[in-house]
Amino acid sequence: MITIKDLHKDFGSNHVLTGIDLTINEGEVVVIIGPSGSGKSTLLRCLNLLEEPTSGSVEFEGQELTSKKTDINQLRQKMGMVFQNFNLFPHKTVLENLTLSPTKVKKEALDVTEKNSRHLLAKVGLADKESAYPNQLSGGQKQRVAIARALAMAPDVMLFDEPTSALDPEMVGEVLQVMKDLAKDGMTMVIVTHEMGFAKEVADRVIFMADGIIQEEGHPNAIFDAPQNPRTQDFLSKVL
Ligand code: ADP
Ligand code: MG
């Protein structure tokens, strides 16, 4: 579904990504771990051109993202993104947060979108919150709305950038549960997280990034129980 080849990203003299090669298959759950500042967010953001790669290629469903022929807005519709800080529209109700993009961007009929959105809200356990405003919700509820909002566009892949890092500890579980359900439904997911227990349980593959490259990747059992790379060993010894 996604093929990344020799991806580089510089911010001025800061060489953040220095040659990333990565393939994400349909239905796969890939978890990216690594120290702060190692370029995990930058990599995710290059996947939907929130950041423009300095060099290298990113193909999504057979289309090169940076090619002039590519309609990036159309491709972006197929990639749902969930951020650490929710980024909900504060002056819109929960239901309106979900219906806005499908009606505006995809020109879906409002009644169709509302029906689908209510179904998604029920799926994330928030059927009773459709008329609430974001500031009336807990952090965990806001993040579940953000996930449902991304799903309302019927994406082919979901990108998560530390979706539970801004949450109080007691709310982390409810968001991870929604993500586990999505994984079970076969959604293709790329997830940056520090939740190692979740990674171990849900990931098909774990990627360890440091110093601008993928240092090690493999099945979670291999990465967590028998890491080969000294950088991975050092990182895991600090976080596990
Ligand atoms: P991570 O998500 O792994 O913590 P980031 O991708 O956020 O790492 O950041 C990697 C490096 O890139 C950091 O040194 C950060 O300061 C730098 N960086 C990220 N985004 C920008 C930006 N928009 N402009 C300049 N530097 C950036
Ligand atoms: Mg980050």
TrEMBL record:
The keyword Cell inner membrane does not apply. GO terms for molecular function: ATP binding. It is found in: Cell membrane. Residues 2-236 form the ABC transporter domain. It comes from the Bacteria. Pfam families: ABC_tran. The keyword Nucleotide-binding applies. It is a peripheral membrane protein. SUPFAM superfamilies: P-loop containing nucleoside triphosphate hydrolases. Coiled coil: none annotated. Keywords: Amino-acid transport, ATP-binding, Cell membrane, Membrane, Nucleotide-binding, Transport. Belongs to the ABC transporter superfamily. This is Amino acid ABC transporter ATP-binding protein. It comes from Vagococcus proximus.
